[in-house]
TrEMBL record, chain A:
The lineage of its organism: Eukaryota, Metazoa, Ecdysozoa, Arthropoda, Chelicerata. Involved in endoplasmic reticulum to Golgi apparatus trafficking at a very early stage. It comes from the Eukaryota. InterPro entries: TPC11, TPR-like_helical_dom_sf, TRAPPC11_C. This is Trafficking protein particle complex subunit 11. Belongs to the TRAPPC11 family. It is found in: Golgi apparatus, cis-Golgi network. Residues 1057-1110 form the Trafficking protein particle complex subunit 11 C-terminal domain. It comes from Tetranychus urticae. Keywords: ER-Golgi transport, Golgi apparatus, Transport. One of its GO terms (biological process) is vesicle-mediated transport.
UniProtKB/TrEMBL annotation, chain B:
It comes from Tetranychus urticae (Two-spotted spider mite). InterPro entries: Longin-like_dom_sf (IPR011012), Sedlin (IPR006722). The keyword Transport applies. It is found in: Cytoplasm, Perinuclear region. One of its GO terms (biological process) is endoplasmic reticulum to Golgi vesicle-mediated transport. This is Trafficking protein particle complex subunit. The lineage of its organism: Eukaryota, Metazoa, Ecdysozoa, Arthropoda, Chelicerata. GO terms for cellular component: perinuclear region of cytoplasm.
Length: 1156, 148
C-alpha cells in the first residue's frame, strides 16, 4: 500500500493483506481500445470486462494506456553463490503480479481483409505491435492481435484472406494462433466470438505462467539449504501463486504446502520468529482457502490444526507475548472467516465442527492478549509519541512481510542493536495499548461465535458466549449492556440450576446493577441474592438486605464494593432525577426464592356444603427477618379472592404477642402458616377450584414491591410450587455452602403443595332397597323385589340394572335371571324402565334369581341412573351409581329317602331280571314356608319300566314344614345290570303356596303365578340279578277255615335251557292240602309250568302257608336251593278267617295286604 | 497454561432430564486447593459440552454408552457417559493427560452401577438431586480407585 496515507490503527498483527486475500486471476491487458470516443470499442470492452456471467472463464482485464509502464523484470543473477536473501516475501511482489504485470497483452486494431489500403493499415498495425512490445522490458508476456472487422461473417478460406493473414502475422512477428478476427457487427454470434477468444486468451496466459514457473524452478539447482532457506520458501510460494493464477488449484495447494514445509525448516530465532509466523499464517491461509474451495474441509481443518500446534508453543519474549496471542487469535478468526465463507458457498457444517469454535478460541486468545499487555501499561507512558508513530508507519511500509521496521532485512540470529530492539518493542506495546480496543475486539469475536453457535444449534455454547460478552462489558464498565446480555440468559440458567454458574452470573449481574445504579434490577437481583441457596457470606447478604430496604426508601445503598466511591453519587443522582420505577413486580417462579410458599388445600375434594380449608405455609430463607404488608391469593374463580386476603392492620400488633403469629413478619428459617376458610358457592360445585396466583406486597416504602407467584401449569397440577421445579434451599447440593443460616426446617421440605381442589356436587337422594324372604329354596327362581325410591327434587331417568354374582368371574356368569318374564344373563346391564321416576315416587320390580346350589351366595345389584336436570351442576347429573348386595342362603325344600321293595312290600336291595319291584319315595318338607307339591314323577333310565301303563301322578298336596308324603312306583327291569346303576331321577314340581305370600306380591302373581319350580332327585342305584326261575303265586286274598282254596304256582323258566327241578311242599299243621307233594320235572326253556295245590285251612288267623321248596338241577353235583329267592317272591302267610256263621256285610281290606 | 505440580483435577457431574445437575463431585489429586473462579469455569465447560453430547448420542451409529472424550477446552478434557434412557448423562471434566481410557470407562461403568442401585430406592424421585452421603462416599471411593 505504498503511497497511501497510513493510520496507526492499520497496523494489525497477523492481518492478511488485501493482495493475499484477493482471488488470483490471469491478468490480460487490452491495448488500442478507445472506449471513451469509439462506440464499437466501448462495446467490445464492456463485453469482455464488465458484463460477466458467472460461468465465464475467470479473467482479469485491464485497459492499457499508451504511456503505461510495466514494472520491468530485474536482471536475474547469474549465480546465487554469494547472495544472502534479506527476507522471505516482498510486500510488493504479489501486487505486481496481480495487478501490474499482464500475462497477455491484446492489441485491438480495426482492419478489414478487404480494406482498400490494406498494406498501409497493416504497417500501422505492425508499428503498434512494436510499440506494445517496447512497453515490456524483460517480460515474456504474450501478445495477441484482434482485428475488429466490419464484415458480417468471417470469409471462408479465401486465398486473399489467408495470404493477408499470414502476411500480417509475419510482419507483426506473432504466432498465427494469436491472431483473432472479430466481426463486431455480427450481433448474433458476437458473444460466441468473445467466449472463444477468451478461452484462447486463457490458454495464452496459462502458457505464460507456465513459463514463469519453469523459470523459477530453474533457479533451484543453484540454491543450497544453508544459505537460501528463505529463497526455497519464496520460490515455492511463487510457484503456488502462479499455479493459482492459471487456476490450477491442486498444483497450487501442493506448492503452498511445500512452501510451508520449507518454512518449517528455517531455523527460527528471536529476530525472525515474527516473520516466520506471519509467512506461515499467509501460507496457511492460502492452503486452507484453496482446500475449502476444493471442497475438502477436513483437510483444511487438519492443516489448520497442524499449523496451530506448531506455533502455539513458539513463545516470544514476555514483552511480546501479547503479539503472539494476537497472532494466534487472528489465525483462529481468519480460519473462522474462511470456514464461514465456505459455508456460505454450500458447505454443511456440523454441530461440533463449525466456525463458532474458531471464533470462540480466537476470543479466548484475545482475552489472553489483553491480559498479556496489561503489565506493561505503565512502562510505555514515557515513550515519545512521535517517534513511535514514525516507527509504526514504517512498519506498514516494510519491504518484507513480517519484518521489524527498526531492523529491515536483518537475518542474524540475535538483534544487532539491543537498545533499538528495546525501543522498538516499546513502540509495539505502545501501539497495542493505545490503538487496540481489546474489549471491542473480544466482544465482536464473541458475537461472531455466538451467531455461529446459534446458527448451528448449540444453545448452551451460545449462552456461554453471551455470558462471556456480558463479562467483557462488565470489565469495561458498560453495565447496562452487561445486564441486558445477562438477562437474556439468566432464565435458562435458572431453570437448569447449575449452582456455580448461576451464582457467578447472578453475582456479576448484581454488581452491574449496583454499579450502574439500576434500581429495579438492583432490587430484583438483590432479593434473589438473599436466598440461602446462594452461597455467599452471611455478612455480605445482610448488608445487601439492608441496602435493598434503604433503596426502597430512596436512600443510597451501603457500599457493597469496597473499592469504588462514586457509586453513591450515581445513586443520589438517580434519586434526584427520579428515573426509577415506583412499583416493582418480581415474578417469583423462575428466580431463586428468598421466601418459599407452599399452599395446601386440606382435601383433594370437598363435599357438598363442606368448608374449604386452605393452608399457606411460608418460609423465609433470607438472612434477616422481613416484614410484608399484605398477602393475597387469586383463584381461577375470582369470587373467592375476597376470602384469601391477609392484611394485618397496624393496630393488631399492639394487642400483644398473641397476634405476633398473625403478622406478616417472618423470621429466617421459621415456618409460618396462614389458614383460610370459606364456603363454596352453590354454582361452583362440580368444578375445580384452583389457586392461580399468590402475591405478597411490601407497600410501606416509597417504592412498592410486589412478589408474585403464578401457577403456570394449570393442567399440570402442583408442579409450579413443588420442590422439584423450585430452588429448594434445603440440603445444598455441594457442601461448600458458606452460609451459616440455621438449619432448614425439614417439616417444610416435606409439605407437598396442592393447588387445586374439587368441589364435589351433591349426590341425588335416591334409595335402593331389596326385599326378599329368606331362606331361598334350592332350584327355585328366588324372587327379589327391587324398590328404587326417588326422594330428590329432580326426576331420574336412564335407570339400568346390573346383577352380578359375586365371588365369580365375569365370563363364567352364564346363569340368567328373570325380569319381567324374560330371561337375562347376569352381568349385563338392563334398562329397568323407559319412563322417568318422578320425585316422590318409586319403581318396584321383581327379579327371579336362580338358586343353583346350597352354598351361601351374594348378588350385587347396581343401579345406574341420571338426573334429569340440564342446567344445574350442583347436583351430579351424570351416571349415578347405587349398589346393594344381597346375600342368599339356600336350603333344600325337600328331604327324600328312597327304598326299594319286593312286590310283597318287603324292603329288598335285590332286584331280579323281569321281576317287578316297588320304588318308594318318602318326601319330607323342610321349607319353613308351606309348599304345594304339584306332581311327582320319575324319569327312568333305559331298561327300567313301569309295570303298569304310566300315568303321571298329580298330587297337588300342600305340605307344611316337616310334613311327609310318600310316592310308590312299581317298576321292573328288562336286562341284567351288574354294576350299580341309577334308576333315573325323581322330578318334583312344586311351588310356594300362594296362600302364604298372597299379601306381598298380589300384582305379579296374577301374571305368572308363583313360579313353578322343579326339583330333581337322583333315584338310588340298583343292580339287577339274573334269575333261573320265577315263581308267580296265585292265592285268594284270604281263606276261610275249613273251606278249600286253590294255590297256584306258576313256575317260569328264565334260563335258555331245559330246567330240571324238584319241587316239594312241606307239610303244615295249619293246612291240609292236595297236590304234588314232592315232584321232579323239567321246564323247557322260556316256558312255564303250573303246579296246583288245593289247601284246606284248619286254623284261623294269620297262618303260615306250607313252605314251598324248589331245588334246581337236583340230580347234578351242584343243586341250587331256591329258598332265598322264594322267600322274597312267594307269600308265606295267609289270613284265614273263621267260618262265617252270621252274614255280616264285608268290606274288603283293600289290596292283598300281605305281611310277613 | 502449564500444569503446576503433580496430580490432576476432576469434576464429575450427573445431569438429569432437564439438564439440571443432580450430583456433583469435585476430586483433586493436587495438593493445592483450586480457586472458586475455576470451579464455575469447569461447570461452564461441562454445561456447554452438553450440546455435543446431544450430537454424539443422537448420531445413529453410536450405540455405546461411553462416549469418550467429547470436548476439549484448554487443558481440560470432557468425557461423557450416557445412561440407557439417555436422559441421564454423566460428565467428567479433567485435566489429566495420562489417563487410560479403560480406567475412565471402568469409572463410568461403576458409577452407573451405583447410580442404578440408588434409583431403585422408592423414596428417590428420578431427576431430582441426589442427597445421599452414602452415594457420595461410594462415588468418592470410585474416584480414588480409578482416577490418578
Amino acid at each position: 500500500m505504498l503511497g497511501t496515507t497510513v493510520v496507526p490503527a492499520d497496523y494489525e498483527i497477523g492481518k492478511i493483506p488485501d493482495e493475499l486475500s484477493h482471488h488470483p486471476l490471469p491478468l490480460i491487458y487490452f491495448a488500442g481500445l478507445n472506449i471513451n470516443s469509439n462506440q464499437t470499442h466501448h462495446y467490445v470492452w464492456e463485453t469482455f470486462a464488465n458484463k460477466r456471467a458467472p460461468d465465464r472463464t475467470p479473467m482479469q482485464y485491464r485497459l492499457m494506456d499508451n504511456d503505461c509502464m510495466i514494472p520491468p523484470s530485474k536482471q536475474k543473477k547469474s549465480t546465487y553463490d554469494w547472495y544472502v536473501p534479506k527476507g522471505i516475501l516482498k510486500t510488493n511482489w504479489l501486487i505486481k503480479h496481480l495487478h501490474e504485470v499482464p500475462s497477455v497483452a491484446v492489441l485491438c486494431v480495426e482492419l478489414d481483409w478487404d480494406d482498400v489500403n490494406f498494406n498501409t493499415r497493416k504497417q500501422e498495425c505492425v508499428n503498434q505491435v512494436e510499440a506494445l512490445r517496447g512497453q515490456f522490458i524483460n517480460r515474456s508476456c504474450r501478445i495477441a492481435l484482434v482485428l475488429l472487422q466490419k464484415s458480417l461473417t468471417i470469409p471462408i478460406e479465401d486465398a486473399m484472406t489467408t495470404e493477408r493473414a499470414s502476411n500480417l502475422c509475419e510482419a507483426c512477428d506473432i504466432n498465427a494462433t494469436s491472431l483473432f478476427v472479430l466481426p463486431y457487427q455480427d450481433s448474433q454470434h458476437f458473444l460466441g466470438y468473445i467466449y472463444r477468444m477468451e478461452a484462447a486468451f486463457f490458454e495464452l496466459s496459462s502458457s505464460y505462467y507456465q513459463q514463469e514457473m519453469k523459470f523459477i524452478r530453474s533457479h533451484r539447482d543453484q540454491l543450497n539449504k544453508t544459505n537460501h532457506g528463505l529463497l526455497f520458501v519464496r520460490h515455492q510460494f511463487k510457484l503456488g501463486f502462479f499455479s493459482e493464477m492459471r487456476q490450477d488449484f491442486q498444483g497450487a495447494i501442493k506448492n503452498y504446502k511445500q512452501a510451508y514445509a520449507n518454512l518449517m525448516e528455517i531455523r527460527s530465532s528471536l529476530t525472525n520468529i515474527y516473520e516466520i509466523m506471519v509467512i506461515a499464517g499467509f501460507i496457511n491461509y492460502k492452503v486452507c482457502r484453496l482446500l475449502f474451495n476444493q471442497n475438502d474441509p477436513r483437510e483444511a481443518i487438519a492443516h489448520f490444526q497442524k499449523h496451530i500446534n506448531i506455533f502455539k508453543s513458539k513463545d516470544e519474549t514476555p514483552e511480546l507475548e501479547f503479539e503472539h496471542f494476537a497472532w494466534l487469535s487472528k489465525q483462529f478468526s481468519i480460519f473462522g472467516d474462511l470456514f464461514d465463507a465456505a459455508i456460505a458457498s454450500g458447505l454443511v457444517p456440523g454441530q461440533i465442527q463449525h466456525p463458532g469454535y474458531y471464533y470462540y478460541e480466537s476470543a479466548l486468545l484475545a482475552i489472553k492478549r489483553q491480559a498479556a499487555i496489561e503489565p506493561f501499561r505503565e512502562r510505555v507512558q514515557f515513550i515519545n509519541k512521535d517517534t513511535a508513530l514514525v516507527l509504526i508507519e514504517e512498519a506498514l511500509r516494510i519491504e518484507f512481510y513480517g519484518q521489524r521496521p527498526w531492523r529491515p532485512g536483518c537475518q542474524s540470529l540475535n538483534p544487532l542493536d539491543p537498545e533499538k530492539e528495546r525501543e522498538g518493542i516499546k513502540v509495539l506495546q505502545y501501539h497495542e495499548l493505545v490503538y487496540i480496543n481489546h474489549s471491542t475486539l473480544i466482544i465482536n469475536l464473541l458475537k461472531d461465535a455466538m451467531n455461529q453457535f446459534k446458527r448451528n444449534k448449540c444453545p448452551r455454547m451460545m449462552r456461554f458466549m453471551t455470558v462471556l460478552i456480558a463479562q467483557q462489558y462488565y470489565d469495561v464498565n458498560d453495565y447496562p449492556n452487561c445486564l441486558t446480555h445477562l438477562n437474556q440468559v439468566l432464565p435458562f440458567y435458572r431453570t437448569e440450576k447449575w449452582k456455580q454458574i448461576l451464582v457467578s452470573i447472578l453475582t456479576t449481574a448484581f454488581n452491574a446493577a449496583y454499579s450502574s445504579a439500576n434500581l429495579t434490577e438492583f432490587v430484583k437481583l438483590g432479593f434473589e441474592f438473599l436466598s440461602s441457596w446462594i452461597p455467599a457470606e452471611l455478612e455480605f447478604k445482610k448488608s445487601i438486605q439492608e441496602s435493598i430496604l434503604k433503596v426502597l426508601s430512596l436512600q443510597s445503598p451501603l457500599n457493597l464494593k469496597n473499592s469504588e466511591e462514586n457509586i453513591d453519587e450515581a445513586w443520589q443522582k438517580m434519586f434526584i432525577e427520579g428515573t426509577y420505577d415506583t412499583q416493582i413486580t418480581i415474578k417469583m417462579n423462575p428466580i431463586v426464592p428468598f421466601i418459599e410458599i407452599k399452599p395446601v388445600f386440606s382435601q383433594k375434594a370437598y363435599k357438598w356444603q363442606e368448608n374449604v380449608h386452605l393452608k399457606l405455609y411460608m418460609l423465609l430463607n433470607a438472612p434477616m427477618p422481613m416484614n410484608f404488608d399484605k398477602l393475597s391469593l387469586t383463584f381461577d374463580k375470582s369470587y373467592y379472592n375476597q376470602f384469601c386476603n391477609y392484611c394485618p392492620s397496624p393496630k393488631s400488633s399492639i394487642d400483644g404477642d398473641t397476634n405476633d403469629n398473625a403478622l406478616l413478619h417472618f423470621e429466617p428459617m421459621v415456618m409460618k402458616c396462614f389458614e383460610f376458610n370459606f364456603e363454596a358457592r352453590i354454582e361452583d360445585y362440580g368444578k375445580q377450584l384452583e389457586i392461580t396466583e399468590i402475591t405478597l406486597f411490601m407497600n410501606d416504602n416509597p417504592i412498592k414491591v410486589t412478589f408474585n407467584w403464578i401457577n403456570e401449569n394449570p393442567s399440570d397440577n402442583n408442579k409450579c410450587f413443588s420442590h422439584n421445579s423450585c430452588f429448594s434451599s434445603s440440603p445444598s447440593l455441594t457442601s461448600s455452602s458458606t452460609s451459616s443460616i440455621s438449619s432448614y426446617p425439614p417439616k417444610f421440605y416435606h409439605i407437598t403443595p396442592t393447588l387445586t381442589t374439587f368441589l364435589e356436587p351433591r349426590k341425588p337422594i335416591v334409595d335402593l332397597s331389596l326385599v326378599n324372604a329368606s331362606p331361598a329354596l334350592l332350584h327355585e327362581m328366588y324372587p327379589i323385589k327391587i324398590v328404587i325410591e326417588n326422594k330428590d327434587e329432580y326426576s331420574i331417568k336412564d335407570i339400568s340394572l346390573t346383577i352380578v354374582k359375586m365371588e365369580e368371574a365375569a365370563e363364567t356368569q352364564t346363569v340368567s335371571f328373570i325380569l319381567d318374564g324374560f330371561p337375562l344373563a347376569l352381568g349385563t346391564a338392563q334398562k329397568l324402565t323407559e319412563s322417568m321416576i318422578d320425585p316422590g315416587t318409586s319403581l318396584i320390580k321383581i327379579v327371579y334369581l336362580p338358586i343353583s346350589d346350597l352354598n351361601s351366595q351374594r348378588f350385587m345389584f347396581s343401579v345406574l341412573f341420571s338426573v334429569n336436570s340440564a342446567e344445574s351442576t350442583a347436583i351430579s347429573s351424570g351416571p349415578n351409581l347405587l349398589k346393594e348386595i344381597v346375600s342368599i342362603q339356600a336350603i333344600n325344600p325337600f328331604n327324600i329317602s328312597f327304598t326299594t321293595c319286593t312286590p310283597l312290600n318287603t324292603p329288598s336291595r335285590v332286584i331280579r331280571l323281569m321281576e317287578p319291584f316297588v320304588l318308594k319315595a318318602d318326601i319330607t318338607c323342610l321349607s319353613p314356608l308351606p309348599l304345594e307339591l304339584i306332581d311327582c314323577n320319575v324319569e327312568l333310565n333305559q331298561n327300567i319300566f313301569h309295570t303298569l301303563p304310566y300315568i303321571p301322578t298329580t298330587l297337588n298336596k300342600l305340605l307344611r314344614s316337616d310334613d311327609r308324603t310318600e310316592c310308590h312306583f312299581a317298576l321292573y327291569s328288562e336286562s341284567q345290570i351288574t354294576q350299580e346303576t341309577g334308576l333315573g331321577v325323581l322330578v318334583i314340581r312344586w311351588k310356594k303356596s300362594t296362600t302364604s305370600n298372597h299379601n306381598s306380591n298380589t300384582e305379579s302373581t296374577e301374571e305368572d303365578g308363583c313360579q313353578i319350580n322343579k326339583i330333581k332327585f337322583t333315584l338310588p342305584a340298583i343292580t339287577v340279578q339274573n334269575s333261573y326261575l320265577y315263581v308267580e303265586t296265585k292265592l285268594p286274598e284270604f281263606g276261610t277255615t275249613r273251606e278249600s282254596l286253590l294255590l297256584t304256582y306258576n313256575l317260569a323258566n328264565r334260563t335258555d335251557d331245559l330246567l330240571p327241578l324238584s319241587l316239594s311242599l312241606d307239610k303244615s299243621d295249619n293246612f291240609m292240602f292236595a297236590g304234588n307233594c314232592s315232584v321232579k320235572f323239567s321246564i323247557p326253556a322260556k316256558s312255564q309250568s303250573t303246579q296246583l295245590f288245593v289247601l284246606y285251612p284248619l286254623v284261623c288267623g294269620h297262618v303260615s302257608l306250607p313252605k314251598l321248596k324248589i331245588i334246581l338241577y337236583p340230580d347234578t353235583e351242584n343243586p341250587i336251593d331256591m329258598d332265598n329267592v322264594l322267600e322274597d317272591i312267594v307269600p308265606s302267610y295267609l289270613l284265614v278267617m273263621p267260618q262265617r256263621k252270621i252274614y255280616t256285610p264285608f268290606e274288603p281290606i283293600g289290596n292283598a295286604v300281605l305281611t310277613k | 497454561m502449564s500444569l503446576i505440580g503433580q496430580g490432576s483435577n476432576y469434576y464429575f457431574v450427573i445431569v438429569g432430564k432437564s439438564d439440571n445437575p443432580i450430583f456433583e463431585l469435585e476430586y483433586t489429586t493436587k495438593s493445592t486447593e483450586k480457586s472458586s473462579e475455576n470451579r464455575n469455569l469447569s461447570q461452564f465447560i461441562a454445561h456447554s459440552s452438553l450440546d455435543l453430547i446431544d450430537e454424539s448420542s443422537f448420531s445413529a451409529n453410536n450405540s455405546n454408552m461411553y462416549l469418550k472424550v467429547i470436548d476439549k477446552f484448554n487443558e481440560y478434557y470432557v468425557t461423557a457417559f450416557v445412561c440407557a434412557s439417555s436422559t441421564v448423562k454423566f460428565l467428567l471434566l479433567h485435566d489429566a493427560n495420562k489417563i487410560e481410557d479403560a480406567s475412565l470407562r471402568a469409572f463410568f461403568t461403576d458409577i452407573y452401577e451405583i447410580y442404578c442401585k440408588f434409583t431403585l430406592n422408592t423414596f428417590y424421585e428420578l431427576h431430582t438431586p441426589i442427597r445421599s452421603s452414602v452415594f457420595e462416599k461410594k462415588a468418592l471411593a470410585l474416584a480414588k480407585k480409578y482416577l490418578p
